[in-house]
Amino acid sequence: MILFVHGVPDTAILWQPLTEALGLQPDSYRALSLPGFASPLPKGFASSKDDYAAWLISQIEAAGEPVHIVGHDWGALLVLRAVSLRPELISSWCVTNAVIDPEYRGHRTAQMWATPLLGELVMLGMRNKARLETGLIAGGMPASLAREEVPHIDLAMRQSILKLYRSAVGLRFRGEWVDDLANIPKRGQLFWGETDPYVDLSVAERFSKRWNVPLHVARGAGHWACHERAKEFAGVLAAHWSR
Asked: What beta strand segments (E) does the chain contain?
């Protein structure tokens, strides 16, 4: 079983070009929807990074066998957390355009979302769908994807985003989230859009060197390289899974 985990502010729609490029049959994979992201919030779910990590582990356990798991953006961070806690559940892992890195201080929007009142003001601006779509495209999201994703960015998602980023102090990781990376399975892969304006390529290079993980750079691609370079990514994953 292959699991795909999207990030912020995306939904499982993100993975459609990739699953098609891989030629996957419906019973061979699941494109998960994070709670609150076009998906219901479980009762008592607080939308913190630890809540999402525990939820992801429950989804991996439900597969009933070791999985291949792929994550983008926050999905990548959650994948790394899950595989560091439960490596025995993992056949292989791959993350794209985000890693847990104690030296990374978070991009500007992440820092604003993590700041009380300022984050709420930013979210008020995100209610304007046309302006939001334009902003996402300016940040590198493919226009076709932005048109599909923006209608799903509702109040529940906006509130979930604020809680998630505040639990991570705007993407500043330390403590066990960093220390437990020593447990990640060796069968890993990084895929990175070279021109990502949110997480610089140097972050991927540092992680690759520190943890001895292969890094594939999609030249000229941005933060959503997993979507805009689906065929290229499919080739990387096919080679990764065959090793």
From this structure: 2-5, 29-32, 67-72, 90-96, 188-193, 215-218
Q: Which residues pair with 191 in a beta bridge?
A: 96, 216
Task: Please give the backbone phi and psi of residue 15, each rounded to the nearest 5 degrees, phi first.
Answer: -90, -5
**Spatial contact of 118 and 112, defined as CB atoms under 8 Å apart:** yes
Instruction: Please spell the DSSP secondary structure of 18-78, one letter per residue.
Output: HHHHHT--GGGEEEE--TTSSSPPPTT----HHHHHHHHHHHHHHT-S-EEEEEETHHHHH
Please list the rounded mean pLDDT of every run of 10 residues in the chain (243 residues): 98 98 96 96 96 98 97 98 98 98 94 95 93 94 97 96 96 96 97 97 98 98 98 98 93
Contact 119, 112 (CB under 8 A): yes
Please tell me the distance from the alpha carbon of residue 209 to that of residue 200, in angstroms, as a whole number. 15
105: left (phi over 0), alpha (psi -120 to 50) or beta: alpha
**pLDDT of res. 182:** 97
Separation between Cα atoms, residue 42 and residue 36, nearest integer Å: 9
Separation of alpha carbons 183 and 88, rounded Å? 10
Cα angle at 225 between 221 and 227, to 5 degrees?
135
* Element (DSSP H or E) covering residue 175: none
Strand partners, 96: 72, 191
Residue with tokens 């991996």: 60
Task: Please tell me the pTM assigned to this model.
Answer: 0.97
Q: Are 122 and 8 in contact (CB under 8 A)?
A: no
